[in-house]
Amino acid sequence: FEWSMEAYKKDSDVSDREAMARRLGMLSLANLNPCVKEMQYAVRGPIVIKAAELEGELKKGAKLPFEQVIKANIGDAHAMGQKPISFVREVIALATCPSLMETGTGFSNDAVLRAKEILGSTGGGSVGAYTNSVGIASVLNHVAEYITKRDGYPANPADIFLGTGASGCIKNIMKLCLTMDADNKPGFMIPVPQYPLYSACTAEFNAHLISYFMNESNNWTLDRAELERAYEDSLEHCIPKAICIINPGNPTGQNLPPENIAEIIRFAHEKQLLIMADEVYQDNIWTEGGQFTSFKKVLRSLGPEFDDQPLASFHSVSKGFMGECGLRGGYCEMTNFPQDVKDMLLKLISASLCSSTSGQVAVSCMVKPPTGDARERYDRETKAVLASLKERSVMVHEKLNAIPGIKCNPLQGAMYAFPAIDLPTGAIETAKAQGMEPDFLYCSELLEATGICVVPGSGFWQTPGTYHFRMTILPPKDQLEVFLDKLSQFHGQFCEKYSDVSPLGS
Most CB within 10 Å of its CB: which of 169, 200, 383, 465? Predict the structure, then answer.
């Protein structure tokens, strides 16, 4: 559509400025917010869209090279068949429909007591009422008790707010760091490989993404020298405001040791950076004898010298043993935040009124297990979930490394593997000739040939010249075995197919 002011004004008695305003004010792709157009979110990108189309074709009876699509692209535990924890669903059911407490329908006494406690902190005794913007008071107390017990250092409910999953909390903390100065964009130090939430938010907020590379050769740990390089390189482009760490790692699956965490804290303190610790996989530790150590615990252990170091820590009901992704519940603890900054945060989140009350109830169940008649079943169910995930993590790691041309670091934690794949030159050149990343070509052909849906490593960013894909360990064990067998066969065929390819016809 070609538009000119002259043509528009022939039939309109308006000024030049109004003519332009009317045209540019009309919502279209051409005048859409450029930050929104720049956003990318790989875990729901074109390969995933294609997987859904193939699923639809199979349902209609189409004959494809496979009988089912195996989705290993996203950490959605219940979609992969994981069963909910009974206590969680009981409490949510009772809080949502309190009359069930009077019918004697077999709910545990623990669930009844928890629901009553939570409802006692809500307006009108109903989860249908708005809560305080920071969350239900009793749930905030439960979170503070949990953090205190986990770390051995006191936590204050006044330093905590509940949100729409960890993602909503992360976005609100990032908003605090934004500036309106185009010449001094805020910068966020993001680990590479990274979870696409961070690159998407950085683009949405018109901020600068400062990439620092994880050390793949050392189980995806962090090097101080790399942090220094990334920081120094960014100074001509932005004002660095925060460093983000995902631990345990997504997509990389590492579990950082305390000494590595301390080094990051010292770096942030020296550079006057806010630390954003994404710790949503803290219950997903798979190495024998391995333990999760929070940034809050290490920060407090470093002594009073670091009492002015701000830290925002995040947790969520979407991962761990619960996998309640759709309930959208999470929390943020703000350590060493000035009170006036917390006041501004309260103002910011107040504009959204409150997060989902069902999600808030789920947070309570995550951080405060039952202690009475529901405890035995709760322990049995949670241990079964975590044991099964651990078994799958070991199997995935061993079978990936048994495939020639694929190498995967140990899965120390989280729910993913991020194996490196050796690709033949022909595949790399073919992909570049088609304007796509080589691992995108690999994952696209993997889907078309086998029905396996994974995410290209380029969607998470990676060290230049390396290629990966991310897969979850969430599909049932029998599906994972089929997945890994098909992957092994496909990888050999793919490499053979492109071993002698010259895409330019030379």
Answer: 169
Q: How many CB atoms lie within 10 A of CB 465?
A: 6
Count the residues in the chain.
Answer: 506
Q: Is residue 454 within 8 Å of residue 73, measured between CB atoms?
A: yes
Tell me the pairing of strands 186-192 and 239-246.
Answer: parallel
DSSP conformation class of 254:
-
Residue 71 pLDDT: 86
The span from the CA of 244 to the CA of 345, in Å, is 19
Cα angle, residue 346 at apex, residues 343 and 348 outer, rounded to 5° = 115
Q: Distance between CA atoms of 286 and 254, rounded to whole angstroms?
A: 10
| 505: its two tokens | 């016809």
For 20, the token pair is: 């332009």
Report d(CA 208, CA 77) in Å as an integer: 32
Which residues face 191 on adjacent strands? Answer: 212
The continuous run of DSSP H or E covering 399 comes out as: helix 375-401
Give residue 37's pLDDT band: very low, low, confident or very high (50, 70, 90). low
HSE-CB for 415 with a 13 A CA cutoff: 27
pLDDT at 39 over 70: no
CA atoms within 13 A on the CB side of 294: 22
Alpha carbons 157 and 345: distance in angstroms, whole number: 15
pTM of the model: 0.87
488-504 pLDDT tens trace: 999 999 999 998 654 43
Distance separating alpha carbons of residues 285 and 292, to the nearest angstrom? 7
Rounded to the nearest angstrom, the gap between the alpha carbon of residue 139 and the centroid of all alpha carbons in its chain is 23
